[in-house]
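User: I'll paste a sequence; please echo it back and then give the predicted structure.

Assistant: Echoing your sequence first, then the prediction.
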Amino acid sequence: MVAYLPISEERLSTIRSATQTERTLQTLCDTIQKGWPKHKKDTPRDIMHYYSFQEELSVQDGIIFRGERAVIPYALQRDIIRRIHSSHLGVESCLRRARECVYWPGMNEQIKTFIVKCDICRSVDTKQQKETLRPHEVEGRPWAKVGTDLFTFDDKNYLITVDYYSNFWEVDYLPDTKSSTVIRKLKAHFARQGVPFILFSDNGPQYTSQEFRRFSQLWEFKHKTSSPGYPQSNGKAESAVKVAKKLMLKAKAAGQDPYLAMLDHRNTPTQGLNTSPAQRLLSRRTRTLLPTRDSLLKPEVKDTTPEQVDRQEKQAKYYNRTAKDMDMLRQGDRVRVQPFEPHTTWRKATVMQPVDHRSYTVQLDDGGLLRRNRRHLRRDQGTVPGVTARTVTFDAHAAPDAVVTPDRVTTDTQQSVTSKSGRPIVEPKYLQDYVH
């Protein structure tokens, strides 16, 4: 077994020497050679963990084996973990490597904890999973909530303004992208349709300027912005941009007037609502090039709020099948921030304050302040709110025969620890014996 173990002779000699100097493993070695007690309660306390798999244990050339795996003394465990993770492979890959040749009580948890706290691995983490859909509330009337965004088509800048209730959007050409130009276009729409209660936009410089802030104060509407790097929260405007650009591209390819395409789109009934954007905003159809009876052009108010709520619920039902909510962050929590260009590594930061349910202001360790969505913030060192992760403290000055006992899992409250799916987590009995 020693000859076929995938460990160098020098390392085997070190393991052999450390095994001879560790009291716990010497007790285990003597018990293996002399025979195990009939009852577990008669087993020495410091080796009680090994009782349940005593048939797998053997001693070969001064090294204790569990099957074909060498039992590593406490003094060498930290070094072995570092060697296992020397190439910075993932948790499962490192566990597979370790399970081939080494063993000690609590090995899996120690390796997981070590990798979770590895600064290099955490700085190049993958993106986090998507969270459940949180759609904007359906407004009870048209033009109560409006979204806006800028886009480019044929090297020209345009402003799109969309009503959240009716999905009716307007496109304006922008000779430049100054805040004053954007404000002038929005004033024209507000003068026709009225001032909305809420205007939603991204964090472009046109919307974060002092001039736009004064505009929102003078015209008495609330200006809300999406999290940087998370355009999904301004999805209504983003979706309108896609539709508008596609219509303009097709009209250009066909040599047709893009405004006629917009007119037809505004008078096309929306799937699942049976009313067009023009009907929901203007309470009437508008005349197109299709022959239309005068009676169909007469004003008629239709409330589509129930249909829109039902549509949102169906959309969320399908979207949430592959999504899961993450826990909320608190002031002072340590996190890592997902990199946006030109950055390439996750940077450490501290949560300063929440902006809304899923948006936070964080301060980088270098002093910079950022606003980020929860999806772009990963808890540092794998901590979970209310739970202290099971860890093993490595003390360089500890005696070689010290007994390794992981800290007990504790919570800030008396509630039981649950899994991701909500099921209670109960420690196996052999771990309870080992911890206590």
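The two ends are 33 Å apart (CA to CA). The longest helix spans residues 235-254.
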